[in-house]
């Protein structure tokens, strides 16, 4: 069991039993509008995603967590990916069902993911992307302390072609100095074994 408990949210590994809730949340085309996938139309799609996420987690490629509001139930997914063990960095990405937008769930979940990345996994840098047309996501990242670092051209492949992305970064010392580092997070268990702090430079 690995779970991270913030003031109102619990982040934990997704399980097949979460598929109906994910279908409901990401069955909304507004939620998946900026993604290369979705909206979900059948429970087999979130079930396949949950199986893929478990494989990627076992391989140390991507650590996706279900965000669960302790009173309102599942809210969405947030995950760490693109790990560089050499450089101690990874990227964070998030989606929530629309009823959780603007509720503070994003801020709390980012505080929890920053704790996971910097403290539990020993990362030095946490990055994120947004579609330059996705102003809500861009503003949300700036609002939790990420710095806009530039635009990567034709970075992301979608069904209708290659898309530019905004790239953002947050360094460990910037997180340590921020209010988000003060959010209470209780850690239950240990992160999956495939995710370990960066080793010595060779
Ligand atoms: C991106 C996401 C996780 C952010 O969570 P959220 O709860 O909506 O974010 P917040 O409400 O904390 O912040 C959104 C910010 O954008 C602003 N905003 C909202 N709509 C906007 C718009 N159309 N144009 C510009 N800014 C907008 C809000 O005012 C807020 O800024 P502020 O804090 O300075 O007032 C959530 O919207 C989501 O799941 N979206 C769908 C999936 C997605 O796009 N994920 C990101 C992929 S990069």
Automatic annotation (TrEMBL):
Domain N-acetyltransferase: 9-147
Molecular-function annotations in GO: acyltransferase activity, transferring groups other than amino-acyl groups
Pfam families with a match to the protein in the record: Acetyltransf_3
Protein's name according to its UniProt entry: Unannotated protein
Source organism of the structure: freshwater metagenome
């Amino acid at each position: 069991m690995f779970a991270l408990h913030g003031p109102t949210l619990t982040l934990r590994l997704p399980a097949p039993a979460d598929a109906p809730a994910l279908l409901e949340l990401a069955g909304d085309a507004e939620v998946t509008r900026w993604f290369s996938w979705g909206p979900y139309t059948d429970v087999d799609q979130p079930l396949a995603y949950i199986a893929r996420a478990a494989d990627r987690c076992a391989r140390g490629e991507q650590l996706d967590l279900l965000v669960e509001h302790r009173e309102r139930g599942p809210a969405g997914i947030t995950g760490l990916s693109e790990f560089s063990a050499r450089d101690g960095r990874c990227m964070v990405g998030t989606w929530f069902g629309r009823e959780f937008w603007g509720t503070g769930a994003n801020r709390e979940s980012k505080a929890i993911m920053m704790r996971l990345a910097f403290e539990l996994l020993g990362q030095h840098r946490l990055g994120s992307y947004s579609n330059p047309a996705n102003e809500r996501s861009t503003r949300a990242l700036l609002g939790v302390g990420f710095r806009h670092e530039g635009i990567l051209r034709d970075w992301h492949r979608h069904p209708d072609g290659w898309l530019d992305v905004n790239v953002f970064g947050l360094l460990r010392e910037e997180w340590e100095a921020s209010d988000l580092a003060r959010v209470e997070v209780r850690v239950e268990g240990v992160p999956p074994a495939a995710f370990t702090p960066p080793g010595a430079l060779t």
